[in-house]
Amino acid sequence: xxxxxxxxxxxxxxxxxxxxxxxxxxxxxxxxxxxxxxxxxxxxxxxxxxxxxxxxxxxxxxxxxxxxxxxxxxxxxxxxxxxxxxxxxxxxxxxxxxxxxxxxxxxxxxxxxxxxxxxxxxxxxxxxxxxxxxxxxxxxxxxxxxxxxxxxxxxxxxxxxxxxxxxxxxxxxxxxxxxxxxxxxxxxxxxxxxxxxxxxxxxxxxxxxxxxxxxxxxxxxxxxxxxxxxxxxxxxxxxxxxxxxxxxxxxxxxxxxxxxxxxxxxxxxxxxxxx
Length: 275
What we know:
By secondary structure, this protein is an alpha/beta fold. It has helices at 14-26, 39-48, 65-74, 90-98, 113-150, 169-175, 187-190, 195-210, 257-274; strands at residues 3-10, 29-36, 53-56, 59-60, 63-64, 81-85, 103-106, 154-159, 165-167, 215-223, 229-240, 246-255. Strands 2-1-3-6-7 form a five-stranded parallel sheet, sandwiched between helices. A five-stranded antiparallel sheet has the order 9-8-12-11-10. It has a two-stranded antiparallel sheet with strand order 4-5. Strand 1, helix 1 and strand 2 form a beta-alpha-beta unit. It is elongated and about 105 Å long. The model has no long low-confidence stretch (mean pLDDT 87).
């Protein structure tokens, strides 16, 4: 079954445009095409319809491939843009691709057109997927920043591939460490673990990372800037890729010191009341 393909053809020669469309049909496509030869006609075509690919002659009496390319870029459209010309040289084609054209096919070798279009369509899909993933990552990072600002906990983001570590403002607020004194790597966490807890905590954390789970939780003592120790509850989420490889560990440390003291005071008060 023929595959539909919406093609915007920038060409002043009807016969050349017909040859291109015939080549697409021979390649298994059912092209829906519009031929334009002026900037106004192209602008109208872009406003009225969506397109899968643009095929542009190098130079027309009232238009040019580079002008058409700039029009696409000005509208933020990322369509496969292929120059199809019988007069452009290799040097000019290379220069055009440096400014945004995706490929070049000679009119003397239209048999290459279908393979070129298929390759550029795949690459356009890849670019869209990358942009979608980047946008999702940016949104996720923004949410993390907002949550980190809203909470009273010390929030960290540990990059398990580089061992880089980011802390939110709560880290300084809870434990008194100044931002300029906080290492940007995992040592900022390791170095503050109580010596009696350190081996247990690190071993448990790596057991979770290497064990394929997505959560890790532990209570331990964490050193403040004044060398006293806070009792903390550390709850973390392990981010993995589709293969299960651990990429990041995002966690929140809650200072339990005040809560433990309040609980002890309550127990003492209750004991005195019973006595």
